[in-house]
Amino acid sequence: MFNPTEIRKEFPVLSQQVNGQPLVFLDSAATTQKPIAVIEAMNDFYKNHYSSVKRGAYSLSAKTTQKFEDARAKIASFIDAESENSIVFTKGATEGINLVAWSYGLSNFEEGDEILLSVLEHHANIVPWQLVGKEKKAKIKVFPCDDNGDLQISELPNLLSEKTKVVSLTHTANSIGTVNPLSEIIPIIRKLAPKAKILIDAAQGAPHSKISVKSMDCDFLVFSGHKIYGPTGIGVLYGKKELLQRMPPWQGGGEMIDEVSFEKTTFASTPARFEAGTPPIAEVLGLSAAIDWLNGVGMENIIKHEHQITDYALHSVRALPATQIIGNPKNRGAIISFIVKSENRGSDIHPHDIAMILDENGIAMRAGHHCAQPAMQRLGVQATLRASFAVYTVPWEIDRLCQSLKRAARIFG
Ligand code: PMP
Predict the structure, then answer these.
(1) What's the fold here for domain 38-296?
(2) CA-CA distance, 135 to 110, in Å (whole number)?
(3) Among this protein's residues, is 145 annotated catalytic?
(4) What is the structure's pLDDT at 345?
(5) Ligand 1 within 6 A of CB of 204
(6) Is the domain defined by 4-30+298-412 classed in CATH 3.90.1150.10?
(7) How far is the CA of 183 from the centre of ligand 1 (A)?
(8) Domains of the chain: which residue ranges?
């Protein structure tokens, strides 16, 4: 039986007091807490099996290499990829996007080419394209959203053409929680921009939904380990195998080569060619344990629970007199974003001031632009408070949030 109160006990961080009160952790979109199974898997590696991968001809290293490659296969199956060779280990979603931009983008963009990004993107899915776009004189076009924060699909015919070389879109907007209708959008891109490669930023999607890169029909997909109950310092880039195989390396070093001489170097096949240097081994094993843990809990259970808790939070926060939810997307992930108005001053109370009061009450919540300044600007705010949920979020945390928001409104109102 799925029971979030029991699940919380598996997360040591959640049992502590902060400022004299039980911690309320509502910042899982920034990073999730870690279950003991993940912490133990990494400890076990350091305590009992520590060795490098690939290089050693000795048993310890051979075993670690096996576990490391098993993790790759596990991740391939987790996102329904055709082969483990489509899985490249990166430092996180940010590095995955940079890899595609600096490898695929740099070698394929020509002057006048176009890159389509949505206005809802995290800066990690904007800035790498700007850097490479500038280098190659490729132009960025912006897929707009409406006042609710839903992408305006009817605009696609005006934005896509033979010139579009990359479309890079988020699965779920980290700022306001919009879940994009990718199964509707991707076929339109395929039809109107036949030369475009499609990258999906699943940093906020992979922890909260079933991902199938096959049925989605994307060319690339990225996510981060630390947002999916795994460690920091590890992420995943999925790429269609034949595409990765044609892409040049973006970083050079050990393990990514076939043969090296001062005259000429030849490169290993994918994924090794994109994994220069000693990889983050403990982190890969930690991510592998996180996927096992998640599969054990069951993604269907997680999705159902997060829907319920998000609905509860939305209704509770909406019911407070001074709050205003920002964005009202048709399909919402486990995120709500809002501002608090001052009744007397007739203006907004700065989200950072509210966050300070929340912290006094033991509530960990993010305030700011959430690395999505274009989205904030489009929705007419500079910053918001963001409550984001995970498998371990429970209703009393939302109740505590609401009490504390009332207190903050009294203090600043
Ligand atoms: N994309 C989205 C939608 C995100 O929410 C984040 C993290 N906030 C990133 C990309 C970047 O992830 P990371 O910092 O783990 O590389």
Answers:
(1) Aspartate Aminotransferase; domain 2 (3.40.640)
(2) 10
(3) no
(4) 73
(5) yes
(6) yes
(7) 22
(8) 4-30+298-412, 38-296
